Structure formats: structure tokens, C-alpha cells
Amino acid sequence: MKEIFFHWLTDMGIEVSGLMALVIALGFIVLTALLLHMLLHRVLLVRLVGILGKTQQVWLPPQLQQRLFFRLALVFQGVVLLGQAEIWLPRNSESLHWIEMLAQLWILLFLLLALFALLDCMLLVSRYTPRLGRELPLRGIFQGVKLVGSIMVGILMISMLLGKSPLFLFSGLGAMTAVLMLVFKDPILGLVAGIQLSANRMLTVGDWLQMDKYGADGEVTDIGLTTVKVSNWDKTITTIPTYALISDSFKNWQGMTESGGRRIKRSVNIDMTSVRFLTVDEQMQLKQAQLLAPYLSRKEQELSAYNQQLSDALSCPINGRHLTNLGTLRAYLDAYLRAHTGIRKDMTLIVRQLAPTPDGLPLEIYCFTATTAWADYEGIQSDVFDHIFAIIDQFHLRLHQSPTGYDMRTWQRGQME
């Protein structure tokens, strides 16, 4: 084509010298590049983005579309420029060498940027596939791919500028391994940690994470290459190094969320001096409670059958078996929790005594609510203990409470009177 064009100019009476041929070739290359740029960016890309925008798809927003197509168009322009230079410029010429180098650098750069845009699109699409987006730390993996791609393209571009083979630069990286490990320590550790977190199903986006060392207690919003972002319940944001989730311990509450039940584990302290046997009148009074009547009837038959064997020995209360107010309270609370609509019956449900302390005898409620929502959970828990505090006196028991200023003033007035 070049020879035909120059021969046509010669027939037209235009002498084409070496300098004139170079100027004409460069002018034709520049003109072609400008026309191609106008055609791609002012016509084709505008229409393509407009057509895709009318489809109203939600998986790829116009901003990412434009960025991806724009960079691919620039790659195509670089390829065309390289081809035009090889067609119009003489081989082994200095101008061809420089244009080829610039075109190749241009292609590598925008190929890398197009890869970045493609990874961003893939990351956005993964959000609409919850299982894939939750089980794989795609953001961290894609950031790792971007880092590796940037290093590889950077080495290729430097080798082009130096006129050396890329293998020459790669061979020199062996001596710089220690420096590279120091510079890229956090990204490398973060990438490995992200893969381990995903492979072992330790943490995914959306999990409730608690890590007291970093003051994190909330929902995981992002697992990146070097950091994990946690939106705390007080609306603050905590960032944790990704590798710290492997080297340190943390608590993942996702198992509780998936189980559908949240644990209540709280105690009330009973004044041990108020624990005693129930009298017959007190038993009759408590028997009026519907939840407690079956238990009292069963225990009366059991204790009566046992005590009949002792006959005269019952004159001493120690020899027989009797109902205690604390044991009856435990039986009532067990029946109350099993009848409560907000408590799971298919999970552990225990009302138990703990070891006595100077603050009294702890009576622990251990059960699971039927919801994991925080507000509902706190409401159920508060209702249960409100009821316990209100009915404790019906069992002739007292709660332990350290003396307050009011108690001291009441005692002092009693002493004065």
C-alpha cells in the first residue's frame, strides 16, 4: 500500500524524498489515529453504552461499562497504531522503533487497566450471587490479582525501555526476594489469610464478628487484601488486618444466627439464709399455681411413699424428705420457661444452682430464645427476669443485694427508735 501511494504521488509530479516520505507517513498515522479515536469514542461507544443503558440491567452500572469499554477501545487503538507504523514506516528506522515501543507500552498499560475494570465488574456481579460472594473473599483475591498483574506488566514495560529480555529482570528478582517480601508483607499475608478464611469457612461478609483486641463487635462489611472492615453496633467502623484473623482468636456469631436461637445465661443471687423447707400451708398455697400443681402433686406422692418407710423417725425433720422453697422455685422456673412462647424447647433448657459465693447462691437460667434479633432477645430476657424478681417472694425467698445508702439510713432510723 505504501509503495502504491508513493508511486501515485510521483505520477502526480510530487517528488517524495526520504524526509518527505517520513512526514507523509507520520501524518497519515496521526490522521488515522485521530479518526479512529473520534469514531470509537464519539460514535460507537456512545451508542453501545446507550443501548446497554436502555436494557436497565442492574448487574453492570453505566460507570463500569464506560470504563471497561473505554479502556478496551484504547487497547484497540494501540494495536491499530502499531500496525500502521509497521506498514508506513521503513523497517529498522529510528522512528519505527520509537513508535513501536510507545505503542507496545500503550497496549500493555491499557490491557492492565482493562483487566482492573473487568475484575471490578466481576466483583459487582458476585454481589448478586450471595453464595459465591459470601463464601469466597473475592475482593481480596481480585486485589491480589491486580497486584501481581501490576508487577508483571511493570517488569515488561521496564524491560522494553531498557531493551533487555524480561527474563533478565526476572532473574534479578531472586536477589531482591527479601526486599520484596518486606515491602509486600501485608498483601501476601492478607491474600493467604483470605484464602484460609474462605477454605475453612471461618468468616464471610455479613457475619457477626467480635474481636475484643481490636474493639470490633459488629457485622463484617468487607474482606479486603490487607484489611477487614467491621461495622460495629454503635455505628463506628473498625479495620482489622486480614492476617490477624488467622494469628489471633475471634468470635464469629454466625452459628448462633443460623441456629435461630440466642442463649440466655444469667443468674439471680439468692440469700442463702432464706432457704428452708415449705410448710403444708405454703405447699397448698403454691399448688394454686397452674404451672406448679403437677410438680407438687408428683412430689407429694413421691415423698409420702418414701417417708412412710421411716415411721417414727419423722419426728426429726432431718430424717425425712421434704420440699424446699428453692427446689420448688427451680421446678416452677423450668415449667415457666417451657411454657414461654419466646423460648426454644428443642435447645438446652436448664435452671441450675451454681457454687455459693459471698454474694449469695447463684440460680442460673440457661436457655435459648426463639429469635436472634437483638431487640427481641433483650425483651424476652428482661421479661423472664422481671417475672423472677416479682414472684421470688411467693416462695419465701430473698434476693441477695449489697447494702445501699438507703438500707443504712433505714437501719440507723430503726436503731434510733
From TrEMBL:
Its main location: membrane. Belongs to the MscS (TC 1.A.23) family. Gene3D superfamilies: 2.30.30.60. Keywords: Membrane, Transmembrane, Transmembrane helix. It comes from the Bacteria. Residues 337-397 form the Mechanosensitive ion channel MscS C-terminal domain. This is Mechanosensitive ion channel. PANTHER family: MINICONDUCTANCE MECHANOSENSITIVE CHANNEL YBDG. It is found in: Endomembrane system. The keyword Phosphoprotein does not apply. It is a multi-pass membrane protein. InterPro entries: LSM_dom_sf (IPR010920), MS_channel_C (IPR049278), MscS_beta-dom_sf (IPR023408), MscS_channel_2nd (IPR006685), YbdG (IPR030192). Residues 186-254 form the Mechanosensitive ion channel MscS domain. The chain crosses the membrane at residues 20-40, 68-89, 101-125, 145-162, 168-193. Pfam families: MS_channel_2nd, MS_channel_3rd.
